[in-house]
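DM from R.C. (forwarded with permission)

"hey, sorry to bug you on a friday — could you get me a structure for this? deadline for the figure draft is monday and I only need the backbone to look sensible"
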Amino acid sequence: MKTIQLVSALVLFLLTACSPVRVNFDYDKKTDFSTYKTYAFYKTGIDKVEISDLDKKRILRSIDEEMTAKGFTKSETPDLLININTKAEKNINVNQFYAGYGYGWGFGWNPYWGGNYNVTTNTEGTLTIDLIDAAKKELIWQGEGIGYLTKNTDKKDENIKMFVTNILAQYPPIKK
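My reply, with the result:
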């Protein structure tokens, strides 16, 4: 049994180590995660998330797929409530490259010394998935994925699925 857990942890590590999504998670160490079998989305919290309805659908669909793959069932009377939060931050990167022919001594302007600037922008997004004990109304697990977002509609499904898969790969936590 220990060998299976070790191999599973190693495979999980290898899959997430190469991922462009950086994942952090935290959980209540006193919680027995084996008691949770059903889930539902926390509609009140999800309705407050300020992203497009299409992206919300993508995220919720990916969470459904991952939870089902883990053996959970969606229910009207769930053990777990799932909430999401998102955040996006635009990054501007400026790189200066010098390309010139005139190296010399002294001060002054050198017409052969020039700089090229390369300005790039990207958007880094954070997706947080909260798992809440439905009976106690307490947060028991929280996973966060941080990575670059795409505006390319063809790649949004794939990108969101990668975020969700990498985050939920950490659930349930493996107790040492």
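R.C.: lifesaver. DSSP finds four helices and six strands in the chain.
me: no worries. Strands lie at 22-27, 38-41, 73-74, 80-100, 113-133, 138-148.
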